[in-house]
């Protein structure tokens, strides 16, 4: 059974004199496009540069600042598939023509059309409050929970198809919770025993070669920068290269290629899932 729970965030209005006052115009927009969960770091960087350049070319924009991935903090769990760009606007009197915030977002959204990318627009302060309150990064969202990740994804895709036809909907995007890609290493324990390499030594060799190891810290004033040592990119950017990583040798024996000791492959895996939508 899959349980569907809706969590909806709406702009916070303040009642004054019998009327509702709209939220404060921050003068800054937050552009948060979403794409496939299996996107690589290189492709996320390329997409971020492309979107930032197109936003910067808009005559109403003063400057942009984009981010891909997560910051080193527990309050920012953004995956690579979600970009964030702060769009600082020029004073309205410098715009080619006067527009409301909704009209401006509509103009930007029409210019920011990329294959496989769903756009979300908000403002930095408002967006942060919405995300902290509900975990949803747009003004309208649907959370899906259940024990079966494959079934959750199927329901999410179906809901995405249904919401796309709702009048007033600009974009709808269901995160594919099972489409992330991971490197899976299945060790051959018999082969490890034959060559005299312990499981701990084998795991450590892979961890240091691929993920790296922080060997020291550079101190510059109040800033601290860890120094990470690992294999060069061309020695770990594909499965054939990874299979040539040498394991063992610390006890005096000869190191052995990883491909001789384990099956190395790429497998699909789970990722956090959200459905976000924005309205016209």
What does this entry show, briefly?
By secondary structure, the protein is an alpha+beta fold. It has helices at about 40-55, 100-110, 125-135, 150-165, 190-195, 200-210, 240-245, 260, and strands at about 5, 15, 20, 30, 60-70, 85-90, 120, 140-145, 170-175, 180-185, 215-220, 225-230, 245, 255, 260-270, 275-280. It has a 4-stranded antiparallel β-sheet, covered by helices on one side. Strands 5-6-4-7 form a 4-stranded antiparallel β-sheet.
Q: How would you sum up this structure, described in words?
A:
It is a single chain. Mean pLDDT is 81; it is low at 6-16 and 273-280. A hairpin with an 8-residue loop joins strand 13 (246-247) and strand 14 (256-257). Helix content is 30%, strand content 30%. By secondary structure, the protein is an alpha+beta fold. It is elongated and about 75 Å long.
> What is the beta-strand fraction?
25-35%
Mean pLDDT: 81
CATH architecture of the domain at 27-122: 2-Layer Sandwich
Derived from helix and strand composition plus strand pairing, the structural class reads: alpha+beta
Strand order of the largest sheet: 1-8-16-9
User: What is the CA-CA span between the terminal residues?
Assistant: 34 Å
Report the top-level CATH class of the domain at 27-122. Alpha Beta
Main sheet summary: 4 strands, antiparallel
Order of helices and strands: EEEEHEEHEHEHEEHHEEHEEHEE
- Stretches where pLDDT falls below 50 for ≥5 residues? 6-16, 273-280
Spatial shape: elongated
CATH superfamily label of the domain at 27-122:
Multidrug efflux transporter AcrB pore domain
